[in-house]
Structure formats: structure tokens, C-alpha cells
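Recap from last week: sequence in, structure out.
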Amino acid sequence: MKKFTAIILILILFCNTVFASDKIKFYGGIQNEFLVNNEIPEYVSFITNEEVNINDEITIPAGALISAKVHQYQKEKRWHKSGFFICNLTKYSMPEGDEIDISDKDIYFVVRKYESLNKKEAGIIGTELVLTQAASIVASCFIIFAPVDIAYFFTKGAIVRKKNPNWFKSGVMEAYDNSIFWFQLKGKPIELAEGDEIKLQSISKEKAEKINNKIEKRNYKKELKKQKREEKAKKHLTSFCNSLS
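Predicted C-alpha cells:
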């Protein structure tokens, strides 16, 4: 079953790569907490890791401090759907520079948690991969079609074989347990501490509003169901108490 799942996953990821739209993507370090069980901040700030070319008029330099207004957030779900929140950029500045207001530019982004691979460990695995012919052949298929983290964890599992004596099963199990893109695994939660790395991907204002409205309606329905359950439980308790009197 897992072999079949792996094949389907490769095909889906390949299709996503082929038909992916050209969007702005960059990485940064968040400067405050974002915990869904606490009060969600109205604004967040983060430092860019690289220069970001928003459009012909706006280019945000690497190391800039960006402020963004937070909109709706979504917790992680199954089928590799990571938690995220929607925001629009309001201003940015360098440590020695003035603030530049961009709040009226309608620059929206989807923000997700990001964890980079350990480059040293990945290098070691890469060397072992060359020396392990069987794992090399299969892992090369993953590298062609799939994100690097799937190839990395599959290869690591195939070589180390901690999960299973069979190199293929061990590779699949390692990828399943570790990869944020794996088919039936929940995505990363949007639980951020100061200094955590985040990935930002641009989104149109229309799309952002559509997602915001969808999440808002979903949350409203959840709250409504919760209230109904509480009212039902209260009625049962009242009925039970009346029967005893």
C-alpha cells in the first residue's frame, strides 16, 4: 500500500511542479510569537533573508525588517496541509534607514513555518548515496520529481535502515515520519517562536479575501456546533437533575 502511495505522491508532486504559477517566494525570521492557543497578534514582524523583488516599484533589500497585518489563520490538516496565516505587508525598514509605508499596496502573502535541512547531514547522506547503488537508483527518481526533503529522508532511511531491514520500506517509513510533504501526514503547525524561520508566498488580494472568508465561515460553523453541543449537554443535565428531585 505504501509503495502505491509513494507512486501516487510522485505523480501529484510532478504535476504540481509543472503547473505551478510564477509567484513570489522568500524566507525570513519572525520576530515575535504566533501561537494559535494564545491571543493572535494583530501585527507580526520578520527579517528577510534575501532581497525580495515585489514589483517594478518595490524591492525590499535583504535584512530588512518587515511589518505585516495578520488576517485569518488555518491550523494544520491531514494530506500535508500545513498551518498558515494570511497577512499583508504594511511597512519595511533597514536598521539605519527610514520606514517605508506600503500598507496601501495590497501586498498579500501566505506565511508558513519553515525548517531547513541540516546541510552537513545532507552532505554525509549524499556521499553515502553514491556508495549505495540500490538506494541511489530509487532516490534519483525522487530527486527528479519530488521536493528535496522527500529525497533526503527517503535516502537517509534507505541507507541507515533503522525503520526496517528492507532498504525500500525503511526509506518510505523514514520519509513518511519526517517529510512535511508526505501524503497522509499532517503539515507543520503554525506555532512560531521568536527567531523561527518562515516561508512566504505571494497571493492576490482577491484570493486572500476568498481564503479569509472561507476560514471565517468555517470557524463560525465550528463555534455554532460547539454552542449546540453545550446547550444539548446542559439540557440533558437539567433533565437528569429534575428526574432525581
